[in-house]
Fold ABC transporter ATP-binding protein.
Amino acid sequence: MEYIIEMLDITKEFPGIIANDNITLQIKTGEIHALLGENGAGKSTLMSVLFGLYQPEKGVIKVKGKEVKVNSPLDANDLGIGMVHQHFKLVHNFTVLQNIVLGMETVKHGLIEMKEARKKVMTLSEKYNLFVDPDALISDITVGMQQRVEILKMLYRDNEILIFDEPTAVLTPQEIDELMNIMRNLTKEGKSIIFITHKLNEIKAVADRCSVLRRGKYIGTVEVSDTDKEMMSEMMVGRKVNLKIDKKEVKPGEVVLEVKELSVKAKKEGHTKNIVNHVSFQVRKGEVVCIAGIDGNGQSELVQAITGISGMDLGKILLNGEDITKKSIRYKNTHGMSHIPEDRHKHGLVLDYTLGENLVLQQYFTPDFQSRGFLKFNKIDEYAKHLIEKYDIRSGQGSITSARSMSGGNQQKAIIAREIDKNPDVLIAVQPTRGLDVGAIEFIHKQIMEQRDNGKAVLLISLELDEVMNLSDRILVIYEGEIVADLDPKKITIKELGLYMAGSKKEEVKHHE
């Protein structure tokens, strides 16, 4: 049997944690091999070892049957190994073409020669249907297009083994389908792909085989066509996972959050259209209202205006009947609003603070946690321990772990613990499960449902259609900054929802006065 890559008995340790515990992984030539596991299972660490970013404590890597040493990404490159990281590594003020040739430039007489490079890039982009504009700046193109640039970077370097680390976390459903096609085309041309993910649908759609890691250990490898999703999720989590949500009947109470005629103007010069255009809605006690839409239709700006992260140009926001339009973020935080933000790194956590410090970010100034301007560290630690246990937040060193070093799923759990434990009247959750695995998703969905069943108002913003359909009591579809439909999830199909989101279907929206 011809394996293009073998990782044999790899062990990699970090302070307080064995990230990879004696793992063996074998990849066949020309296959799409999925690497499945929860956040923190050791998938990215294992791939970083293969890519030369980390050196293992023990174990052997073979490429095409020969033992190799991968001391750096440059070595990986020479061996034909390329990687698209979860957070893209692109220079934003460079063009697409400049990013692709970066580090591989042809220099003649001290000048960079781009003609040949451009030709090669255009040929590659046509061959693999990766149509990108070589002269566009990275800062001006969509996330889906940025990902294509990352793929072209690998192809430009003639890489044969392509590692995709959670490549669909930031894409729209349409872009995901396109990516799947691109991956199939790549293997048709003889490339071999390692696809790190925890989305079972995607594994079923494109992968040939799937290897599962759990808490740093290798669980097994299965043929995807013979294995159902339930079986894979059980291998991954170590127990049966309920992928369906049991919902009680909804009994909405009085209005908690009311948004009236909210508008946000476009920031860019020359744009006269509002990014958010006269949006009005209410969220009542005991209901989940979901704002669904394709990314970039104004939902981010809407939430940032409601929570106070950025401004609004028109409109009013009422919380429990009180006009809070002009109030500070801290006022909103201490008067019943909780916010699980879209970007957990930018707006959710202070990455260089400890887990404990992050858990009291909105309460450190209360008498519980400070006295005369001095923090009560023992109290903070006590509170953090309570939340870590209650929300199963896994971290190498408990409350003194740096937030930066935690896996995405555990960072997300920390934010959810902090926001829900404040006992808010309204919980605003923006893509709360983005990039998380089934175990963490199940946990987070339960927490959100518990808030609803306890009579809290929940405003959910999500791009995941399954999540929208499963959690919502009402769905508001946002398209080009306007609410174009108010739907009952029990009465529509996912397909119909998709049509509303794409703007090809509109209903007369009744304005609730």
